[in-house]
Design a protein that fits this description.
Helix content: 55-70%
Radius of gyration: 16 Å
Distance between the termini: 23 Å
Oligomer: single chain
Number of helices: 9
Shape: globular
Order of helices and strands: HHHHHHHHH
Number of strands: 0
Structural class: mainly alpha
Strand content: under 5%
Length: 154
């Protein structure tokens, strides 16, 4: 659908208080987390949710933050390319997958335990919050038919 044909609501304009609350939740979730890890989590959830809008935005953000093209290309297949990612990043990616696909099998104890082994309780809470926020943003973008490449933050 062409951008001009998009007749869906502008979530930020239609529900500004909710939109600002999401922005605040997102900002709070990121506090104290490595920016590279933040982008990896957001990229993987966006892959799983098929959210081109967020995937485009977060791969660009990762590049601007110095992320390598090799690692960006491997996020979708990180299990087969583990050597590109630290054990901590792998634990976060596995948790991202489990939480994003929570309806399939919940969050397995082993996945949670592995994440808990790599993050202290505060960090783990922030990782979980970040996973929740990107899943919310993906759903907002998909529901309102946001078009990849039209990042409105600028």
């Amino acid at each position: 659908m062409a951008l001009a044909e998009n007749r869906r609501l502008d979530f930020g304009k239609s529900a500004p208080k909710v939109f600002r609350a999401l922005i605040g939740f997102d900002a709070a979730a990121r506090e104290g987390l490595d920016p590279a890890l933040v982008e990896l989590i957001q990229i993987r959830a966006s892959h799983l949710n098929h959210c081109a809008y967020c995937l485009h935005m977060h791969t660009n953000d990762a590049r601007k933050a110095g992320e390598s093209e090799d690692r960006l290309h491997m996020v979708a297949v990180w299990r087969e390319a583990r050597h590109f990612f630290t054990p901590r990043e792998q634990a976060a990616l596995a948790l991202t997958e489990a939480v994003t696909r929570v309806a399939d099998a919940g969050v397995p104890d082993g996945v949670y335990a592995e994440a808990a082994a790599h993050f202290d309780e505060r960090e783990l809470a922030h990782v979980l919050a970040l996973i929740l926020t990107i899943n919310t943003w993906n759903r907002v973008a998909l529901s309102t038919a946001k078009v990849a490449g039209t990042d409105e933050r600028r």
